[in-house]
Amino acid sequence: MMTIKLDGKKLAEKVKTRLIQRIADLKSKGIKPKLVVILVGGDEASKIYVRNKHRTAQKLGIETQDIRLQRTVKESELLTLIKTLNADDSVHGILVQLPLPEQIDAKGVINAIKPEKDVDGFNPQNVGSLFLNDPHSLPCTPAGILQFFEEYHLPVCGKHVVIVGRSNIVGRPMAAIMLNHDATVTITHSKTKNLRKLTRQADILIVAIGKAEFITGEDIKPGAIVIDVGMNRNENGKLVGDVEHSSVNERASYLTPVPGGVGPMTIAMLMEQTVNFAERSADFDGKNVFNS
Ligand SMILES: Nc1nc(=O)c2c([nH]1)NC[C@@H]1CN(c3ccc(C(=O)N[C@@H](CCC(=O)O)C(=O)O)cc3)C=[N+]21
């Protein structure tokens, strides 16, 4: 079987192109979309993310401010900073890069971000709205994955979607989004018994478990759509996904590459969401933008 590559780089360009006019319209109203990224310490995936985010935002004319804090920063300092940004009308989106160092309670920090500025859609209010199929913002990685299905006209309704991984960033919100699109959803994770028996039943397999080349050709149904969310460095320093592409290729019908698949889409959706928020602030004068 010929496997079709789901080209995230190309699709991200398309998403960004459709933002250009919207950003120009905002600027004509005197609004410059602004995203603030808070980075504490920083792991490998986070560094790639920050670099690519910055580059993309600059190209689009979205203002970004990176606030880098030391690994030893106090939680109270972080909370004070978020409060200041919540109150700053020039800031439309706030993103706290995860993971946070151990001494910081990530839940408390995410709770502190005003839901209207929560570009990642991680705040419990936004998570709840998504689960109730009334989303205000979508976590960027799952939102980016959804774009592939729309762009390539791949039906989701009635399909069996199996998700490997239950993180707050990818697995859980992805499940909610697919359910909202009438898929039948199975979430698997590190404690799942006979996990590979389940992955072989998937029409659509979404892998976000953070283990290099965890899923191989034998673990998928021939003709399945496979989305690889993984971003791992192998022993040679090369970026590899959670899927073994050598064996999944020619067995899947569609497959996202790593790099050039889900990663660029995550960034494109972050930009889109920042623009969405800036527009809402413009339309509703910064008042309650979600209930109208
Ligand atoms: N609050 C929060 N939200 C996140 O969404 C989040 C986070 N924290 N922490 C870190 C991870 C990681 N992440 C990436 C997104 C895109 C690329 C990306 O652009 N990858 C490209 C480039 C690869 C390269 O340059 O080598 C690609 O896959 O083609 C990478 C990593 C978002 N994350």
Automatic annotation (TrEMBL):
<comment type="similarity">
    <text>Belongs to the tetrahydrofolate dehydrogenase/cyclohydrolase family.</text>
</comment>
<dbReference type="InterPro" id="IPR046346">
    <property type="entry name" value="Aminoacid_DH-like_N_sf"/>
</dbReference>
<comment type="pathway">
    <text>One-carbon metabolism; tetrahydrofolate interconversion.</text>
</comment>
<feature type="domain" description="Tetrahydrofolate dehydrogenase/cyclohydrolase NAD(P)-binding">
    <location>
        <begin position="139"/>
        <end position="281"/>
    </location>
</feature>
<feature type="domain" description="Tetrahydrofolate dehydrogenase/cyclohydrolase catalytic">
    <location>
        <begin position="6"/>
        <end position="120"/>
    </location>
</feature>
<dbReference type="InterPro" id="IPR000672">
    <property type="entry name" value="THF_DH/CycHdrlase"/>
</dbReference>
<keyword id="KW-0028">Amino-acid biosynthesis</keyword>
<keyword id="KW-0554">One-carbon metabolism</keyword>
<dbReference type="InterPro" id="IPR020631">
    <property type="entry name" value="THF_DH/CycHdrlase_NAD-bd_dom"/>
</dbReference>
<dbReference type="GO" id="GO:0004477">
    <property type="term" value="F:methenyltetrahydrofolate cyclohydrolase activity"/>
</dbReference>
<dbReference type="InterPro" id="IPR020867">
    <property type="entry name" value="THF_DH/CycHdrlase_CS"/>
</dbReference>
<dbReference type="Pfam" id="PF00763">
    <property type="entry name" value="THF_DHG_CYH"/>
</dbReference>
<dbReference type="GO" id="GO:0000105">
    <property type="term" value="P:L-histidine biosynthetic process"/>
</dbReference>
<feature type="binding site">
    <location>
        <begin position="165"/>
        <end position="167"/>
    </location>
    <ligand>
        <name>NADP(+)</name>
    </ligand>
</feature>
<dbReference type="GO" id="GO:0005829">
    <property type="term" value="C:cytosol"/>
</dbReference>
<keyword id="KW-0521">NADP</keyword>
<dbReference type="InterPro" id="IPR036291">
    <property type="entry name" value="NAD(P)-bd_dom_sf"/>
</dbReference>
<dbReference type="GO" id="GO:0006164">
    <property type="term" value="P:purine nucleotide biosynthetic process"/>
</dbReference>
<comment type="function">
    <text>Catalyzes the oxidation of 5,10-methylenetetrahydrofolate to 5,10-methenyltetrahydrofolate and then the hydrolysis of 5,10-methenyltetrahydrofolate to 10-formyltetrahydrofolate.</text>
</comment>
<dbReference type="GO" id="GO:0035999">
    <property type="term" value="P:tetrahydrofolate interconversion"/>
</dbReference>
<dbReference type="GO" id="GO:0009086">
    <property type="term" value="P:methionine biosynthetic process"/>
</dbReference>
<keyword id="KW-0378">Hydrolase</keyword>
<keyword id="KW-0658">Purine biosynthesis</keyword>
<dbReference type="GO" id="GO:0004488">
    <property type="term" value="F:methylenetetrahydrofolate dehydrogenase (NADP+) activity"/>
</dbReference>
<keyword id="KW-0511">Multifunctional enzyme</keyword>
<protein>
    <recommendedName>
        <fullName>Bifunctional protein FolD</fullName>
        <ecNumber>1.5.1.5</ecNumber>
        <ecNumber>3.5.4.9</ecNumber>
    </recommendedName>
</protein>
<keyword id="KW-0368">Histidine biosynthesis</keyword>
<dbReference type="Pfam" id="PF02882">
    <property type="entry name" value="THF_DHG_CYH_C"/>
</dbReference>
<keyword id="KW-0486">Methionine biosynthesis</keyword>
<keyword id="KW-0560">Oxidoreductase</keyword>
<dbReference type="InterPro" id="IPR020630">
    <property type="entry name" value="THF_DH/CycHdrlase_cat_dom"/>
</dbReference>
<comment type="subunit">
    <text>Homodimer.</text>
</comment>
